[in-house]
Design brief:
Layout: H1 7-17, H2 22-28, H3 33-41, H4 49-59, H5 63-67, H6 85-96, H7 112-127, H8 131-151, H9 156-178, H10 181-198, H11 201-218, H12 221-235, H13 244-263, H14 267-281, H15 297-311, H16 314-321, H17 332-348, H18 352-365, H19 367-370, H20 374-383, H21 392-401
Helix pairs in contact: 1-3, 2-3, 6-8, 6-10, 7-8, 7-9, 8-9, 9-10, 9-11, 10-11, 11-12, 11-13, 12-13, 13-14, 13-15, 14-15, 15-16, 15-17, 16-17, 17-18, 18-20, 20-21
Organism: Streptomyces populi
Protein name: HTH cro/C1-type domain-containing protein
GO molecular function: DNA binding
Length: about 400
Amino acid sequence: MMAELTTGQRVARARRRLGWDQAQLAASVDRSVSWVSKIETGRLPLDRMSVLGQIAEVLGVEVVELTGQPYRHETAELDSGHAAIPGLRLALQQATMPGGAALIAMTDVPALPELTSRVEAAERLRQDAKFAALGDVLPQILRDLVVLCDVAEGEDVPRAESLMLRASHMARVSSNLLGHHDLGWSAVQRELVAAERAESPILRAAARWDLCGLWLHEGELGAARDMARQALDDLEPHMGTADQTLRALWGAMHLRAAVAWSRLWDRPEAESHLAEARQAAAGVPEDGNAFQTQFNAVNAEIHSVEVSLELGHPRDVLSRAELVNVGRIASGERQSHFWVCTAVGQMMNGKSAPAADAILRADAIAPQHVRNRPIARNLVDDLRSTDKHAHTAEIRRLAASMKLG
């Protein structure tokens, strides 16, 4: 039943559960009754996470209750790793419980170099948004790392824990994409433990960056904002060094803060953090990707597009998008994210034709990413109801694959 409801219908259901009428919901989010009516009937899409998060907060529900996640698809490829969730959950339970290594039957301890190569290969799948293929290998990588971290000694401890953090990050990203936010939290918990065991400020910053990402997915904007502030305060004393990894994590944390502030509709703060990130990006390689942050100049500009979108400034979305050389970032996930944001911005500007073109570009690059994103799904649902573009048949096929009707 839930899978068949639209986002607007889920909003209406949560509102009625509180015993509210549309006027009460409208007043609580500082909108008109007409706006609420259009949201609930699907005549107006929920096209920003900032708005979706605000509605979830006032209705006292989690964001996933309104989005209907997790979504399931017709083919194993587009199902984006759902089949791996039970194995991933068990591996993370073993990774986070005391003595978890003793529960894993293994005759030989995995070698550090071999596991390093496997983690690097998995990271390429993550950046290409090939989450089904990632799900095939990640649970076993995590189990092997549980054993390795348990027996590691001396200089191998920080190396093993760094691999555990990187693998747990991939588990967090996969879990949040698929709507299993509780599993994402387990992954981040293990990242934080890895940082403490390694006694590394770099790993600590990487884990906190991921914790901010988790909270942004969950709509916990105040928590994400405050974590970014604390992490930046702790990183600042180290910024006098020439360490490019620290500089990249500093810049990536500013991007997290910019998104959090934009979803809280504070433009000065959001733009201030964007400016800091741009400055930091000038000191890292063009293809920078420290700890899977993809922190570099192109990604800073992709974030500027997202910030304008969340702030509700569609003209800025398009003007900033024109300046992004998105082909220069080596991440299908980031490229796809850019095109989704651009598509939503085009639709907010009343331009359905370029919106349809952009969302189809996003889907062509990373379908497993697009088809699990609530905002992309809402946009496709909106586009299929209009014939003011030349991609009607393609959009309807995409909507059908998303089970949108």
